[in-house]
Amino acid sequence: MRPRLFLPSLISSSLAAVLPLSAADPAPDSDAYFSHFVQPILESTCVHCHNADKQNGEGRLDTLENALKGGESGPWLVPGKPEDSKLYTSTLLPADDDLVMPPSKEPALTPTQSGHLKAWIAAGAKWPSATPLATVPRMQFVRDIQPILEQNCVTCHKPEKMKGELDLTTLASSLKGGEDGPSLVPFDPAASPLYSHTTLKADDDDLMPPVKSGGPLAAVMQEKLRLWVLQGAPWPEGVVLVPKTKTEDRPPSPDTLELTAKIREAILLASKESGDPQAYSETIPKTNKAFKMVPIPGGDFSQGSPETEKDRKPDEGPQIKRHIEPFWMGATEVTWDLYMPFMVTPDARWKDGSKKTANPQDKPVDAISSPTAPYTDMTFGMGQDGFPAISMTEHAANKFCQWLSAQTGHFYRLPTEAEWEYAARAGTTTAYSFGDDPAQLGDYAWYFENSDGKTQPVGQKKPNPWGLFDIHGNVAEWTLDQYDPAYYASLQSQIQANAALAPWNKPVTLYPRSVRGGTWDDDAKELRSAARRGSKDTWKVMDPQLPKSIWYHTSAQFLGMRLVRPLQVPSAEEMHDAWNLGTKNQPK
After folding, report:
1. What are the residues facing 540 on neighbouring strands?
2. Chain centroid to CA 11: how far?
3. Other CB atoms within 10 Å distance of the CB of residue 541
4. Edge-to-edge, what's the strand order for the sheet holding 476-482?
5. Rounded-to-integer distance, Cα 293 and Cα 469, Å
């Protein structure tokens, strides 16, 4: 393979170490140099903003004549004088400079690319007169190329597994290549096996990736690789590739606002409630399993703990007066009896939980995403019948609520953090719903001292004054809120400014989300009504999948959920929010 000619003064030291200089490339004053090095750079980074239809800065770069003419600031190309040619000097400006080219919203040219422009201009800027430039999509490594390489190539070509003695995890190792020579030759797709071997026939032994590993690549991926190499194979300094699970080619998720609207319409048709909420038992049509809901009267309370409360933490204050509308809450935490039929289904599913063989005749409940098959026993031997369901993500909890709502004709969701604490306190102002003495906790809760190191069947202890069992301990319970240790302070500022308080702290990031109630593995102080905690990405540390599952927190065997049903049926948009916030800002 032919090494390329670059100007040493413009190459980073790391690149220069793996890309030796050679006289084998076209001379900078030749037509071939322009077509081989310069044309791909201009067509992918400049012409899309400077052409006959779009003339940023009142100039064009699609022909030599237009480049010499320039724009409102004068000529852009001065042959023989790189330092006077804005076509070159603008590529060297700081990223925050308004005149930097390409604009700061796009990746800058690499030193190699700028170096080729400088060498070409210094040699006279020879531009074949019959070569008007076209607009070519610019390949950005992180967006366009990194996913292809990480999902299709790096698994077999990394330091710990160098098939063919080839490591494709870094620019340097790709340029070095393996037993057959360099794998990557910038500006020359035909000479770059990293691209050319992806275009071979399926029965060719050199096809990358091989058929058994999912090859050949889709035509659109091949074209992205070709354009990237043709444009100089820009690879951001310091980026090291790691193997990733392939992104599956599948139709859009069915979890749409349209689906939510259909479920809401059915709920409105079935709604018969009026007046104050009453306790009731609900049976799930698909499973014939029942659960109980208890009424929570509306009212005011002080959210958070007073400064005098023992074991109080800073995130529990200052106390804030909140008003809560009436609602129903699950008498117990959601059990495996209810959750298991949602989690384990006979349908093959994509990673987002939608069916791989969706039926157009499916009812709304059958179109809702459900968890992919679990890769281990999710009860972890703690018990199933009558035991709280555990280790689901907030997204899984939300989709369970949607699945339940679509069957029952009632709108179910997770509680807000304020609703949860209001219901847990049940009109009390003490550390626990039964008082301040943790010595009584064993009558009401499963925690470190009495749980035998695992979850326990729900409803075995005394309930709080409003009939909620295990509101302290057993498993921690998801809420809809973003966890923010300074949230109450922000609410106080809003009150002082006479602003209306939002009913909940709507999430904007995946972590942390607010979890309440304490667990079977916690000390008494963590079970107080005001105690707060935030979810963590480490709750997925045991998950062997790449990327990590959106359905399971395998390392959080203390984590569960409890249902809420508001008195008023919200809008379709509000329902959709409640059921789909569990993956907001999910890493891809």
Report:
1. none
2. 35
3. 12
4. 532-534, 513-516, 476-482, 559-560
5. 11
| Lowest mean pLDDT, pick from 59-73, 140-154, 389-403 | 59-73
- Indicate the class that CATH gives domain 282-583: alpha beta
| H/E stretch holding 39 | helix 39-45
Reported as a single tens digit per residue, the pLDDT across 482-521 is 999 999 999 999 999 988 888 999 999 999 999 999 999 9
The encoded tokens of residue 203 equal 């029965």
Among 255, 254, 257, 253, residue whose Cα is nearest residue 574: 257
> What is the length of the chain?
588
Query: What residue type is assigned to position 505 of the chain?
Result: N
Beta bridge partners of residue 304, listed in sequence order: none
- For residues 268 and 409, what is the distance between their CA atoms, to the nearest angstrom? 8
Distance between CA atoms of 343 and 265, rounded to whole angstroms? 25
For residue 148, the surrounding DSSP H or E stretch is: helix 146-152
pTM over 0.70: no
Please tell me whether residue 403 adopts helix, strand or coil conformation: helix
Alpha helices (H) in 320-393, listed in sequence order: 336-343, 364-367
Q: C-alpha distances in angstroms, 27 versus 6, 22, 85, 87, 120? A: 11, 11, 20, 20, 9
Report helix, strand or coil for 382: coil
DSSP assigned state of 38: I
Could you give the CA distance from residue 403 to residue 479 in angstroms, rounded to a whole number? Answer: 18
Mean pLDDT, all residues of the chain:
90
Span of 89-93, 400-404, 458-462 with lowest mean pLDDT: 89-93
Question: What residues pair up with 296 in beta bridges, in sequence order?
Answer: 327
Rounded to whole angstroms, how far apart are CA atoms 529 and 425? Answer: 6
Measured between alpha carbons, how far is 283 from 273 in angstroms, rounded to an integer?
17
Residues of the chain with CATH 3.90.1580.10: 282-583
Give the pLDDT mean for 2-12: 32
* Tokens encoding 530: 């005001």
Structure tokens, 128? 């074949």
Inter-residue contact 517 to 472 (CB < 8 Å): yes
pLDDT in tens, 168-194: 999 999 999 999 899 999 999 999 999
| Rg, the chain, Cα only | 31
How high is the pLDDT of residue 258?
Answer: 94
Both structure tokens of 515: 């979890």
User: In 3D, which of 454, 453, 510, 507 has the Cα closest to residue 480?
Assistant: 507
